[in-house]
Structures are given as structure tokens and as C-alpha cells.
Design goal:
This protein has 10 helices and 18 strands. Among the domains are: about 160 residues, FAD/NAD(P)-binding domain (3-Layer(bba) Sandwich); about 100 residues, no CATH class. Strands 3, 4, 5, 11, 12, 13, 14, 15 and 16 form a 9-stranded mixed sheet that branches. A 6-stranded mixed sheet has the order 6-2-1-10-18-17, sandwiched between helices. By secondary structure, it is an alpha/beta fold. Helix 1 packs parallel to helix 5. Keywords: Membrane, Oxidoreductase, Transmembrane, Transmembrane helix. This is FAD dependent oxidoreductase domain-containing protein.
Length: about 400
């Protein structure tokens, strides 16, 4: 495949990983990214959960778990191969804690059954044999963690999360150091057109030609797919979400916990000083089924401070350790980005398709490829497979 030109639309984790895998196969990748640099959007500002399917206990079919397990198990070795260094020190050390809310879309006994079923799927998967089972809290253990009567059950769940800001910096450095990859940052893609080969359309003009185009966008992906002749998916939603990235002055012993399952939130403790905190109702700023929503968050520190305050206050009602995080905060950043899903509906609705996220992957029209990453942790696995298929 030496010299074959591939336009990659979007410089998030999917586009960056794909460019590195393609370059190693002798291609000439070009990344188009509308932000000033790659790895600056949703791939930088998220919790970094390495999904093995436990989060989707509302999916009775377990199809979502079956779909994400392979990517979750492959995430660490693939990323370490791409950045040529270990992720040690950049990941949460202990099991996640899942706390079942009284208004969860999945009641506690059913959640226990689903978590056990997902654990069995993980252990049966190649490479998953070393993973343990989910373990339910005793009542005394649950009471020590949270005094909230709204939390009706708790589980230790063998999942980890990675510090996405650090991974973003390492992936960006790997891409920038690879002389075979060309970056076109600050260029928003509005469409593509096909002649003998593909051209990429931006407000500044057309770029190309390219032998292959891969649409790895989240924001703006659907109009580009339409311009390439792909049909719209049956269902989709585009959400702009914000979260809190907090660093403390000293080590704080706070759990990595998910309040589930529904429109709740979570905490990630990466190393005792760096934390991710999200409360879904406070962080969800915009939701749309427009083809290309252009909403942007209000500018100014007052807006960020309100999102942070609302998120921390909501989490503190369930986990008193959040008060210590607030008191010891050295810095607080509120950030996020657009999230695309081939699903829709409210997380408070157990019938909403957003609880079932198995419909992601690769769609083609000739040498035009649209890739729905699905989850952050499935992106490197999909990128490796797609690079092999393009080759």
C-alpha cells in the first residue's frame, strides 16, 4: 500500500490511531481537524472508561456488552503500542464501584444478574480469563461508602479508566513525530466529492485527490456521509456534554464510582490527585437530531463555575468524599465536546435506544468509509481492523 493517500476526517482517538496504523503500513494519511490541534475535543475530555459492557445493564440482550468487550480488552496493549510507552500510572488502580440509584432504569437484583452475565462474557472472551466477577456490597459496606437512602445497592465491578488528557498528549506527540502523517488542522470538512478519486471539501476550498476517505468525525459526520452518498442511519443523537476535571493539592482517598443506571453521574480517581467528575443533568448542555448542530457553550468563567458547582453538589449528596475534593481543589477545569450515537432517547427511559449501543462500526461506499467509533475504548481496536481492511 506504499504511497496510497488516505484522507482521515477528524483528529480524535479514532482518526489519530488510524493514521498511525496506516502509516506503519506504508500509506500516506492526511488528518483534517477543525480544531487548532488534534486530540483536543471529546477524545481529550472524557472519563476514559475502558468499557467491558457493565455500564449497559439496561440492555437485556447483552448485545452492547458483546460488542464492546473485544475493544475494551485490546485497548491498553494497542494504545501502548501506538504511543510506545506504558499506560502504567495513567489508569485507575482499583475496581469501579457501581451504585444503583433507587430510580435506576435497572432495579438492584436485575442489575446484579446482568453484571454477573457480563462478567461471564468477559471471562469467556479470548484474553478475558483473568477478569474477576462483579461483587455485591453488603449493607454495612454500602453504608460506609454512602449514607444516601437513594442508593439501594452497590457492586464492585472489574473495569478501569484511563486519564484521557495524558493519553491525548501522548497520541498527539506520536502522530506529530511520524513524518508520514500530514496534519491539516483548523480545517472544517463540509463534504466530499468523487471523481476519478475523492476530494475533501472545506470552506477554504477542495483538497485532494485521495484514494480513500475515512470519516472519523463525531461533530459534522452526517452531512459528510450524505455528500458521499450514504443513507442516514435510522436513529441518532448528538449531545454536547461537559464534565469537571479536578486536581487536588494533596492526595485524597475517594472512590471511583458510577451512580447508575440512568441520568446520573460518576467519579474517576486516577492517582489520588487527578479526578474526573460528571453529573449528567448538569453536564448535558445540548441535545439534537439536527444533521449538523452548531451549538457552542456560553463563554466566560461564570458558566463553567456553575456547571462545576452543580455537578459537585449533586455528587456530594451521594458520596460525601466529594466535599473533600472541593475543599482541596488546586484547579478545576470544565470541558467536554460533542458525542455522537446511533441511538436516542432519555437515559431516564428504560426503553430508550441510548441504553443499547451495539450499532457502531464501519459503513462503506466504495473507497469512502464512515466509522462510528462507538466508545472511546473501542476506537484503537476499530482503527487497527480498518487499517488492515484498507490495506
Amino acid at each position: 500500500m506504499t504511497g496510497r493517500s488516505v484522507a482521515i476526517l477528524g483528529g480524535g482517538i479514532m482518526g489519530s490511531a488510524l493514521a498511525l496504523f496506516l502509516a506503519r503500513r506504508g500509506a500516506s494519511p492526511v488528518i483534517f481537524e477543525q480544531m487548532p490541534e488534534i486530540m483536543a475535543g471529546a477524545s481529550r475530555w472524557n472519563e476514559g472508561k475502558i468499557h467491558l459492557g457493565y455500564m449497559y445493564s439496561a440492555d437485556a440482550s447483552l448485545d452492547t456488552a458483546r460488542r464492546v468487550i473485544a475493544g475494551g480488552l485490546a485497548f491498553v496493549p494497542l494504545v501502548e503500542d501506538l504511543i510506545e510507552t506504558s499506560l502504567s500510572g495513567l489508569m485507575t488502580e482499583g475496581d469501579d464501584v457501581f451504585l444503583c440509584h433507587a430510580t435506576s432504569v435497572v432495579p438492584p437484583d436485575l442489575m446484579a444478574q446482568r453484571l454477573d452475565a457480563v462478567a461471564a462474557l468477559v471471562r469467556a472472551h479470548p484474553g478475558g480469563g483473568g477478569h474477576g466477577a462483579a461483587r455485591r456490597f453488603g449493607m454495612a459496606e454500602l453504608a460506609r461508602l454512602t449514607g444516601s437512602p437513594a442508593i439501594v445497592a452497590g457492586f464492585h465491578v472489574p473495569e478501569r479508566s484511563v486519564q484521557t488528557r495524558a493519553v491525548a498528549d501522548l497520541l498527539r506527540a506520536a502522530v506529530e513525530a511520524d513524518g508520514r502523517i500530514r496534519l491539516c488542522c483548523g480545517r472544517r470538512v463540509v463534504g466530499v466529492e468523487q471523481g476519478a478519486r475523492w476530494r475533501v471539501l472545506t470552506p477554504e476550498g477542495a483538497e485532494g485527490p485521495f484514494d480513500c476517505v475515512v470519516n472519523a468525525l463525531w461533530q459534522g459526520r452526517l452531512p459528510v456521509d450524505v455528500s458521499a452518498g450514504l443513507p442516514l442511519p435510522a436513529d441518532w443523537s448528538q449531545r454536547y456534554r461537559l464534565a469537571v476535571f479536578l486536581r487536588t493539592r494533596r492526595h485524597v482517598d475517594a472512590p471511583g464510582a458510577v451512580i447508575a443506571a440512568g441520568p446520573f453521574g460518576d467519579i474517576k480517581n486516577y492517582n489520588g490527585r487527578d479526578f474526573y467528575l460528571s453529573w449528567y443533568p448538569a453536564g448535558l448542555q445540548h441535545e439534537s437530531r439536527d444533521l449538523d448542530p452548531q451549538w457552542t457553550p456560553p463563554a466566560g468563567g461564570g458558566f463553567d463555575a456553575q456547571v462545576a458547582s452543580d455537578s459537585l453538589a449533586a455528587l456530594e449528596a451521594f458520596l460525601p468524599q466529594v466535599a473533600e475534593l472541593r475543599a482541596e481543589a488546586e484547579s478545576i477545569i470544565v470541558a467536554g465536546g460533542w458525542v455522537y450515537a446511533a441511538a436516542s432517547g432519555s437515559l431516564a427511559d428504560p426503553a430508550a435506544t441510548i441504553h443499547r449501543r451495539a450499532d457502531f462500526g464501519i459503513t462503506r461506499r466504495g473507497s469512502y468509509v464512515s466509522v462510528d467509533t462507538g466508545k472511546y475504548s473501542t476506537a484503537p481496536w476499530l482503527a487497527q481492523r480498518l487499517a488492515a481492511e484498507i490495506a
